[in-house]
Amino acid sequence: MEKVKKKEKFTKAGILGYFLKGCYLLFGASIFSSLVTTFLNVVLPQIISFTIDSVIDDEVPDSVFTYFADLFGGVDYLKRNIWILAVAIIVIALVMAIFQYGVTYFNQRANQSLMRRMRNCLFSHIQRLPLRWHIEHQTGDIIQRCTSDADAISNFISNQLVYLFRIIIIVVLSLTFMFITNVKLAAIALAFVPVLVGSSLIVYSRARKSFKKCDEEEGVLSTIAQENLTGVRVVRAFGREKYERDKFEKQNVYYTGLWVKVMHFMSVYWTSNDLLAALQGMVLLIVGTLFCIHNEMTPGELVAFISYNTMLMGPVRQLGRIISNMSRAGVSIARIGEIMNAEEEEYGEAGKLSGDIEFKNVGFSYEDGKPVLHDVSFKVPQGSTLGILGSTGSGKSTLMYLLDRLYPVTDGTITIGGQDINDIPPATIRSNIGFVLQEGYLYTGTIADNISVAGDDISQEEVEHAAEAACVDDNIRGFAQGYETVVGERGVTLSGGQKQRVSIARTLVRKTPILVFDDSLSAVDSDTDAAIRARLAKEFGGATVILISHRITTVMHADNIIVMEGGTIAEQGTSHELLQQNGIYRQIYDMQMSLPDELKKEVGYGE
Fold it and tell me: One GO term of the cellular component aspect (predicted)?
């Protein structure tokens, strides 16, 4: 079995801790600034209360501010110079503004640092995940997790989580001053809190499931859009624009409907909480006024109490919004956790490989358990050429996926130079095997960029030499911009044959000791096919070459040919030997060679 890098699974807290590395200082500065702002915000009502009761009114309360008033000449002096209190309030407000700026500045710096680390970690991790993982997950969903879900986590941490520390201080200080001011009124105020908190907990459990469903359906919507844009040629060729629009609209309507239901549910909750908070404020104002009339508290104390209650109810009323965002962030953390907890392939330093390639009794099954390969054995001596022929689904490409360690070998062994490939790091295998797929993927950029992307420090001369070997140099020079021609997304401006040959050039420029062509000459005519094989024999004669094709002329000159059927080797030998057997190879040969010359050229057959 394939050896993979083992690691402990991330918990939700573990994922947050992992992504927050390097951001703690910035978030700490933001939290500290927030706490200073909060403390000063709590002090202000006390100053206002003292001013109302002692300076405006004639009653001097038993307050710590009486001591400070004595430092300025006493209460009588402050009455004559009330501007001193006004300046004190302004100074506190200015200090609060400075620290509030610190909250915003450090928070934004921390948020950007967090997002940068999350993107880098996710992208780097995804690059190391095995091919099977990528096949099992839709591309649109992966993109959605790395964008929308990452944003949800970042926004929650930089906004709600930092705000949570402030809430804790506000609640503790507000309740403390409320009970110090008037125990009875504080008890009345707290009677409303359990209802608000209880409803928030109920909302949390329900909202979490709803947000998870919304995120999943957003992933489906992203996948539909991504597949449509990727397959735009197919859509246009078959005139399926209306079908694609209807499919996207159907999913979009469903996704939008889910969000409308969630937002309706949350809006009802927010509105109910706001009404309950307004009712509580009205009750406190009425009861507090009665307490003032009966001398159970002073007007200044009532003003301070109402201020502290407003501070308290603010976080309580925001609790629903925080829980709503917490619900979505929790879902997003879980979805990103599924990516981060996926086992990476084992990677190491790339080394050199050489020697014979040998398959010994190799078998393989995909997830459904249905065997794709069964008891496959053959040997490819170093420097020789192997041809693989077979119908669609016979297992030709799977053989090469196993050789390149894109899938783990589940039965039998594959060796290179006598060494089991499961004991060779994937980086070493893939740096020594040049793999050309039938449908070569081209990146948005120039032709030169698409060829040189295969390695580091590849010169323009090497790029052009590889293009000549792939018989595409003349085509490239025929473009107005030559090698600087922009090919568009997925090489949309090039023909199928040109894309294949650019892909071949990209592989040849690496000069690997093993070359695999997975039906990658299917889109070129027979003359170009023969020319490419001639250049390979001339310039890469020392390389081990494996040619997979449905075309007899592509494989007939190979040192050894295997014919695959139903996941097993039906025939094996040289072209001459296989022709003598009058089996599958002979049937394909006779069929292709009996075609009229015009048809041979049209479909790509012929010598």
Answer: plasma membrane
